[in-house]
């Protein structure tokens, strides 16, 4: 029974020594001296803030993209024991001893290092030679810009890693298609393609470009499968469903999981709360949750409420009134009603409180049992402190003459009767009998007499801030021509209590005191995800011209650079600069590829076949991945209205670099027909690689920040007048 123990257990394995050596060299090039400089480098000042917020579990919104990349950076901080206590306020600030610099920079460096063997394997899976694959890996290894970007707490190296992993996984899956369909390895590489695509998109939305490219490639390959008569209809359906599951359903689920983890980690109130809805804010620990905890859920007649405008940008504001009246005449000579001002005020204040009154009753308290207000009910809104009724009439608003003035009515004994009835319309209702709910309901107030809608016009334009007589608060109007449900016309109850005091003095005391009733208002994950995703996509910081911003045209010829760090005393500095030899060669390779492809297409149209069919298919497949990857990751930037930097080009140039060995091997195999020409071509390639290595070594002091260079050496590195090499004045 135990006879198998008489013989030794032998395990044999095939090890690609070249691949191992490339991986080791990649790790050395990215991990060497990783803690240097021990200071904030360029965008570390930006991403570091988010890492600190993760460590403290404080909610934030970053409009630059999804949270997965930030979470990976935070994972590095967590593994290093970072407590989040560091002031990320300026580039060049020295890190304190509690900041685990090596750990924070580790994951981007590992991702950058692994791009080297990935490049090798991609060329192998494209059926190019070992020499071509080795050349691609060496070019990625010696690319100064990729080294610089991967050695700091930045996201581009992680993005490029997942992009290349997705491409490699798809190629491996495709190559298994003919002989091992639906095998374990086939499923593994197909699923890994979807996972890697989702991770790329989760790091930065730029990952969508490569994801779309792979989806288009998969669609083209499946279209060719449809024409294969050897495949049954059932088999085709299974292939279609497998690709749909792995390339669409699973990536979508994984993308949702990034946000789920993000929201689970960040459960505390933070600096970005105010751009979220009241319901979202109330779901966070602290902040608004401390105020709204235990509030009654259903708004009833007699409820005391504050009304927050749903738009919430460029700032949050609440419906507000005070004792001051509109001036009898405005600066432009137009007259007003001289009624009490109603504004939208961007701060919490006791004058933000209103009482929901039943027009048919005089009481301002909640009955027992409470009578809830439902969609379509008519109410009056009574200002809590001044007890005047919210009113609008056919008088032009102070800053928006096309709209009606909104005021709190004062009876001047003139022929201007009160018009203070409002119909409650719950926009996000599920049925026409829905109850008006605290925080959750988004409500329009439609004026019964004129059909005007209560609108915070001041949020739609900075010009709609009232003059000094209105304390620079935001204008509120009755919008007569209301089309649709613009968010400036929507309001939600943020703070809410059931009024108990009929007497005004007692009510004023009540308005200053917290409520204690306990009703939960937790949002579902999907509601939170939808709101957060919408904010990420629509929230735009003001794009300002940056010293190192550039245009997409500057990237191809590398007419720009970015100074990442400068030593405070010596001339040591770090720049984002590419390997000039590699970038020039990549441009040449792209030009040769396009010209040769057009030439071949024209000749093939004339039934002239310069290269064998299998070589043509290989040429087009490699171009679809490499040239296509460059195009989809570069051309969209010409359509973007945002501040652009050189590092945005790194995913595109990575694909373009992979195109170089593709073109070189093609030239060697099909254009160099004699032994002499092949030998001469090989010698030129060796000389060219030596040039690439020379340029890498020349600029490595600006890549690694050491050794410090003298003034003359720095001036010598300024190969282009447009490069901003930092030279200290003596």
Automatic annotation (TrEMBL):
Reaction catalyzed: a di-trans,poly-cis-dolichyl beta-D-mannosyl phosphate + L-threonyl-[protein] = 3-O-(alpha-D-mannosyl)-L-threonyl-[protein] + a di-trans,poly-cis-dolichyl phosphate + H(+); a di-trans,poly-cis-dolichyl beta-D-mannosyl phosphate + L-seryl-[protein] = 3-O-(alpha-D-mannosyl)-L-seryl-[protein] + a di-trans,poly-cis-dolichyl phosphate + H(+)
Membrane-crossing segments per the record: 12-32, 68-88, 100-120, 126-142, 154-174, 186-203, 208-226, 246-267, 580-602, 614-632, 644-664, 676-696
Pathway: Protein modification; protein glycosylation
Keywords: Endoplasmic reticulum, Glycosyltransferase, Membrane, Repeat, Transferase, Transmembrane, Transmembrane helix
GO annotation, cellular component aspect: endoplasmic reticulum membrane
Localization annotation: Endoplasmic reticulum membrane
Documented EC number(s): 2.4.1.109
Record-linked InterPro entries: ArnT-like_N, MIR_dom_sf, MIR_motif, PMT-like, PMT_4TMC
Gene Ontology molecular functions: dolichyl-phosphate-mannose-protein mannosyltransferase activity
Pfam families: MIR, PMT, PMT_4TMC
Gene3D superfamilies in the record: 2.80.10.50
Chief place of localization: endoplasmic reticulum
Membrane topology: Multi-pass membrane protein
Sequence ranges assigned to domain MIR in this UniProt record: 296-359, 370-427
Similarity field: Belongs to the glycosyltransferase 39 family.
Protein name stated in the entry: Protein O-mannosyl-transferase 1
